[in-house]
Amino acid sequence: MDGIVTDVAVGVKRGSDELLSGSVLSSPNSNMSSMVVTANGNDNKKFKGDDKMDGAPSRVLHIRKLPGEVTETEVIALGLPFGKVTNILMLKGKNQAFLELATEEAAITMVNYYSAVTPHLRNQPIYIQYSNHKELKTDNTLNQYEEYHRAQAVLQAVTAVQASNAPISGTTVSESAVTPAQSPVLRIIIDNMYYPVTLDVLHQIFSKFGAVLKIITFTKNNQFQALLQFGDPVNAQQAKQALDGQNIYNACCTLRIDFSKLVNLNVKYNNDKSRDYTRPDLPSGDGQPTLDPAIAAAFAKETSLLAVPGALSPLAIPNAAAAAAAAAAGRVGMPGVSAGGNTVLLVSNLNEEMVTPQSLFTLFGVYGDVQRVKILYNKKDSALIQMADGNQSQLAMSHLNGQKMYGKIIRVTLSKHQTVQLPREGLDDQGLTKDFGNSPLHRFKKPGSKNFQNIFPPSATLHLSNIPPSVAEEDLRTLFANTGGTVKAFKFFQDHKMALLQMSTVEEAIQALIDLHNYNLGESHHLRVSFSKSTI
Questions:
Q1: Partners of 62 in the beta sheet?
Q2: 484 CB contacts (<8 Å, ≥6 apart)?
Q3: Which residues form the RRM domain (predicted)?
Q4: pLDDT digit string (tens) for 160-194?
Q5: What is the Cα–Cα distance from 85 to 60, expressed in whole angstroms?
Q6: Which secondary structure element, helix H or strand E, spans residue 300, and what is its range?
């Protein structure tokens, strides 16, 4: 891969050049704990213990081949994604540093991650290894040195940032913290969002500029926003310069990018709203299926995509959903190219006793305008669904794959077919194929519709709209209870034209949406049902 030096890697080798400057490192195998060395970075003394090739982990990490102008903040940022950083020592004269993490487990995670994704600072590959010393202790007599004071001040500022974090959507973030010299975290706002933008699309776009460690998406001031953390602040700078003001799709979904005031994101859940690519073991936290470990591992081992915008490496795409997202992401900055891709989905493991073209139209219609549905004649637990465009098929696949419909977990993948063929004229296919091209129930036919901004994964809470004045809460509770589930909570909006209704499970909510979307409530009002991101 371009720009990677082959002899620079991450490993457990204890280098003989692990040098001490301005500090004393404590080791169970060293009798030199009283040694004080000058802090000018020119002392050539070594710890004898560092000549060992012992591979035992330590919470103290030795970082080498640092660029000369690198800052303490940038070095600390290398460790923050993996846990609390408790101490730092910069050896600027030797282009080295020692970084101490709060736990050995955090250090192991950091070394393991950077053994797969070569760490870079200011476009230069660096070397990270375990120190032979178990703790980084700085002798108090060295406090007079300016570098020591600055490093400690930076560490304290970063610790203050971590302590002041506030929760957003189950993820710890804060936009009121102290701004570092250059943060690895970008704040992204999407303007003119006529097409949905998923977390996977953002990952594919920004991974071209370096290793993306974490992403959080949320809505603030009625705008879709994201916080995205790179492993290297320089990669964040490059992504900002290249992508700020660019459109993801033709003439819409404009990226507005600035540096966040954060230096680290604390992600608690891996789901459609947040992702920590260094921690594939995190729970989903919201009733959604936990991220598939194999997919998560593939993401975690992904190296930087050194392609120019508009060209993605297929080697970095772990599954079909991400492939479709990549196809969309590859259109960044390419005017005149509209959203495309494969429009036909293959849905399998359906309940063949219950499923109909209409029920598939209603459910998949939450994520796009379904054109045609064909339940396979010789395999009635499978169906082909043709969406209006490739973005809608990708969106439906990413949200509905693995969900329960009529008691069975359905599988949704991209089909090899380009269109769904209608049966020949005069041929009776028992109603298994249906053309919905002219359906009045399409949610996204109108460009710029608000429906584009209200696309959420299946959830137990449903958003109801177009409710006539004569319909009361008890009427709606009874109506939804008759779909076979239990209504747990209900809340009218102030104007009583809309409401939130919570079922016991996501599966019950899916069933209720299929049964009651477009239900005639009288007075020329047909109920509109969609999934909500809110809870009651």
A1: 98, 129
A2: 508, 511
A3: 59-133, 186-262, 343-417, 460-534
A4: 655 544 333 333 333 333 333 478 999 999 987 77
A5: 10
A6: helix 293-300
